[in-house]
């Protein structure tokens, strides 16, 4: 069977009696204020009728744009990052862009390999959740100025860059103060042992409120690669054993909270009767858990919208200094049974 020949811009030009330049402008969304509405509609209707698909390789060479954005997350399987990715995909698609997803697993070497791979493929922009110890590499990537770069979920203090983040300090401060206001005296904090900004700020917010209220800092920090392991759970177990007076726990990430919930179950500690629980980042599991777990929820839809809006702004402005895009968004405290104060008659 003879393969059907692919339709070209020249074929469309010949059929409609319209120049290839005009058709190219319409296909590449550059027809506004240049070409009449009637001609645009005529070409678009014909393209839809014949099922014309532009040659993406030739289009990239001609325009210098691949219409692709890379989202380099810490872990794309994490419900928080996957929810962000899904919402960004919808917005990007509406604006003519596709998104490629990948995970660094918080490893510097892996992030460098992925950057080299995608820079060779001429992607237009990067949205990156940088791993630990990646500041110099991020600064170099931004300085090269060949792609738009948006940093997500964390940021750096000592060089200019674009970012969209949660207000982690204010969120942690609010969460700790909420537990103290609920009558809990001995709030424990389970965080990540890391130098990334959200980790540092969540610990800082906890310590700040505890100090202001004359309370002792009771915290433990777990290395990233141990969070989901038996070693990480053992550290949480030992921490609780060393601090039997702890009456509430604030977890800095949803992964830490899951390890913590498993540990509390192994220790036969009831929530909230024996210990109250509050964590960062909502997920279905926390709402369905018995009892439901209180959270500081990140505004997923707003974060995704700001990330894509900011990235598209950078692309349209050719990443000029004046186009710097920085957004710090507020978290939402969602109160559930896990953070309730149990009265002396054992009713919640």
Automatic annotation (TrEMBL):
Pfam families recorded: LacI (PF00356), Peripla_BP_1 (PF00532)
Q: Which PROSITE patterns match?
A: HTH_CROC1, HTH_LACI_2
Which SMART domains does this entry report, sorted A to Z?
A: HTH_LACI
At the top level of its lineage, which domain of life is listed? Bacteria
> Signal peptide position in this chain?
none
Q: Which InterPro entries match?
A: Cro/C1-type_HTH, HTH_LacI, Lambda_DNA-bd_dom_sf, Peripla_BP/Lac1_sug-bd_dom, Peripla_BP_I
Which stretches are transmembrane?
A: none
Its source organism is Christiangramia crocea
Which keywords does this chain's UniProt record carry?
DNA-binding, Transcription, Transcription regulation
Any one GO MF term held by the record is: DNA-binding transcription factor activity
In what residue span(s) does the HTH lacI-type domain sit?
7-63
Report the residue ranges that make up the HTH cro/C1-type domain in this protein: 3-53
Q: Does the keyword DNA-binding apply?
A: yes
Name of protein: LacI family transcriptional regulator
């Amino acid at each position: 069977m003879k393969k059907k020949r692919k339709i070209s811009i020249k074929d469309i030009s010949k059929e409609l009696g319209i120049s290839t330049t005009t058709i190219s402008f319409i296909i590449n969304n550059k027809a506004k204020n240049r070409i009449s509405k009637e001609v645009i509609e005529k070409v678009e209707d014909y393209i839809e009728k014949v099922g014309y698909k532009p040659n993406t390789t030739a289009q990239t060479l001609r325009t210098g744009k691949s219409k692709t954005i890379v989202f380099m997350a810490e872990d794309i399987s994490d419900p928080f990052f996957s929810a962000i990715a899904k919402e960004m995909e919808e917005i990007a698609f509406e604006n003519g862009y596709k998104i490629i997803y990948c995970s660094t697993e918080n490893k510097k070497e892996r992030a460098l390999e992925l950057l080299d791979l995608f820079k060779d493929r001429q992607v237009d922009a990067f949205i990156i959740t940088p791993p630990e110890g990646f500041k110099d590499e991020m600064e170099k990537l931004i300085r090269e100025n060949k792609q738009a770069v948006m940093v997500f979920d964390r940021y750096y203090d000592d060089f200019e860059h674009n970012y969209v983040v949660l207000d982690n300090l204010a969120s942690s401060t609010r969460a700790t103060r909420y537990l103290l206001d609920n009558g809990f005296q001995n709030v424990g904090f389970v965080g990540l042992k890391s130098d990334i900004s959200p980790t540092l700020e969540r610990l800082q917010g906890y310590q700040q409120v505890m100090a202001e209220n004359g309370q002792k800092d009771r915290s433990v920090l777990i290395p990233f690669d141990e969070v989901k392991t038996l070693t990480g759970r053992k550290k949480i177990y030992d921490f609780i054993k060393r601090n039997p007076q702890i009456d509430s726990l604030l977890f800095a990430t949803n992964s830490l909270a899951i390890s913590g919930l498993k540990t509390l179950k192994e220790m036969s500690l009831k929530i909230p009767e024996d210990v109250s629980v509050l964590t960062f980042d909502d997920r279905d599991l926390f709402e369905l858990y018995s009892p439901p777990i209180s959270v500081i929820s990140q505004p997923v839809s707003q974060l995704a919208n700001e990330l894509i809006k900011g990235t598209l702004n950078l692309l349209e402005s050719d990443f000029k200094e004046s186009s710097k895009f920085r957004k710090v968004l507020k978290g939402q405290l969602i109160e559930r049974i896990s953070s309730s104060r149990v009265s002396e008659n054992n009713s919640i």
